[in-house]
Prior knowledge:
Elements: H1 8-36, E1 48-51, E2 53-62, E3 86-89, E4 97-102, E5 105-114, E6 124-129, H2 130-137, E7 140-141, E8 148-149, E9 156-164, E10 195-199
Amino acid sequence: MPSFFTTPKCRIMSSIIGAALMCGATVGTCATAQASIKPTGTDKTRLVEPILLKGSTKASYFWDDSSGRMGDTGLPAIGKPMQKGLFASPSWPLGTEGYVIYKGKKAPFFIGDRGPGIPSESGVMLDIDGKTFAELTGGNFSDTSLMVTGFDAGHIKVDYVITKWGSGPGKKNRPVPFSAGAWGVYDKNPAKPPVALASLGD
Length: 202
């Protein structure tokens, strides 16, 4: 007499039960995998910021440490000490924020000083702090000489993106030479944003 466990009916039921158990295990595994990739508070999240202006320009570098060694006349115009990420513009409002890109490297900045002066007449419309300039170009910044070594050129071409305009006087559009005096005039007609949103870290 055949055992119940060897009958076709039992084999079918066993297959159904086995499938159900496997399905349950699979669901459990999927749930575990999903839980393991949920972002936590420490994970980097993609931030979305507005693009108010973007373009490209030649850029030089500077470092005003208030010593007078490199011809500076004191603290940067914004009143904050010289620091990494503090750039100078001949026309954008102080406090303007954004980032530059050079050969795939991105560096954030805020406008904290005025300049370049005479070089802006030749299209050099941004002064990058020496430490950021060194990082972008692969050079080395010297705290003693305030110069960047290991990179021969004094100017580089960068792409820039403005994400926030400063609230003070200055032109909220394409940069213009220092001699134009735009740094002292409030701009009531800022540039129309070219793109509504952009993802950082792309």
